[in-house]
Design a protein that fits this description.
Helix content: 10-25%
Order of helices and strands: EEEEHEEEHEHEEHEE
Distance between the termini: 31 Å
Radius of gyration: 17 Å
Largest sheet: 4 strands, mixed
Number of strands: 12
Length: about 140
């Protein structure tokens, strides 16, 4: 079992394996974990498709799995993992992060209040919001 952290949140993926720099995810779990899906033209999301380099296709795609870390790095995005390879972070490209900073709009997130009710920042778009954080350390 591998946990993948991405823009869609945390997804636990059974049958996935991470070792070294490779994150092999079963074909049927790729879209759920990332929002991308494998098509004949490559790894695709909406109108964007990223083909695997033909000479290195075996590093990116197997008959039953996709190496998401290889695709992420091929797209110029960070793919990081813990020492055990059980938790992976698939990040956004630097250009995407810079564009988000230019808008001065905070990224959306959802957190529970003390009663467990979930609240999203996007619920308050267009209104002034004060965010207060605290840490015990």
């Amino acid at each position: 079992m591998v946990t993948i952290l991405g823009d869609g949140g945390a997804t636990k993926v059974a049958g996935a394996s991470g070792s070294g720099g490779a994150l092999w995810v079963p074909l049927d779990a790729v879209e759920q974990a990332t929002g991308w899906q494998l098509k004949p033209e490559g790894l695709c999301r909406d109108e964007i498709c990223v083909p695997a380099p033909p000479a290195r296709k075996a590093e990116f795609v197997r008959a039953d799995a996709v190496n998401l870390a290889a695709f992420w790095q091929h797209m110029g995005r960070p793919a990081l993992h813990d020492a055990a390879g059980e938790t992976w972070v698939l990040g956004d490209a630097a250009e995407e992060r810079a564009a988000a900073l230019d808008t001065l709009e905070a990224p959306d997130f959802t957190l529970p209040d003390l009663n467990g009710k979930m609240h999203s920042l996007s619920d308050h778009r267009g209104r002034k919001v004060v965010l207060t954080t605290w840490a015990s350390w």
